[in-house]
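Quick start: load a record and inspect it. Here is DUF1559 domain-containing protein:
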Amino acid sequence: MQAAREAARRTSCQNKIRQLAIATQNYESAHGSLPGEPGGGLDGLTFYIHILPYIEASVLADLYDPSVQPRKQLRNVFSQPDPTMLCPSDQPVQVLYAKGFDANNSGTGDTAHDYKGNYGINWGTGYYDQSRPLWNFVTQSNQPGEPGPFQPDKEIELRRITDGTSNTLLLIEMLAAPTGGPSEGNAGIDRRGRLWIPATASHQISTLLLPNSSPCDSGGGGRGGGSTTLDPRTGCGKDRGFCIDRPDLGLHCDRGSDGAGEAAGYTLAGRSNHSGGVNAARCDASVEFVTSDIDLAVWRALGSRAGNEVITE
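Running the structure step on this input writes:
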């Protein structure tokens, strides 16, 4: 019975990520490019806000006011969960505290009670700074990472996805991390799963780490163990960014600071509560269940939009 219920939840998750992928295609047909994504910060329209009008039966599309900055609507609009953004295998998570959000923009207090979601955008093969070097399996050397269909402050046209829309990931499942309350202050902040502001380490998923990646062995290779260091050759490691280490929930974290240098090295893995993998949608709106033991070179190739890799699945 339990297995049947989880199978139904997984199917529901696949249907929702497909719906978001189709909404993205409809946006592209209307605007000539994929939705843009601001390069961090608190202001600007995220991918999810761009596609709201194209999501069938969205509960937020009619409530969102495009004349008001999204961060000023976190309490009165985005404090309602949108079922399309949520996978039933995960629990809905509402932000209880986020630094710098208040009604009067005075820098004190908190009105960020937005709900998180479970579908992140494909940020490419590496770190938040997409040009930061990582291990390249073709050249067997460290080279700059390859961006996915999203880059900071750019709207990518489909013709720039030269690897092909059927060979490039668009959306990857993620877990919405619980957050602490105001009494915990910054120590209780975990951005993973936030959709409505463009903050770093919130919904930008990369293929640097394998799906459901766990900490590397202390020796630096393999999977499991306790080292916080990423191993780009094996795809193991913890998420890095504004997060809280919750191994009990499958949410491993190596917490960064809010400095610009730290943000460049932020990275998030695709994660889910499904056994053995995550759901993902490609740029042609096809959906699949990707196993956690997928070959890392293939996973990286699916993350790039113009890497010219040969994918053998």
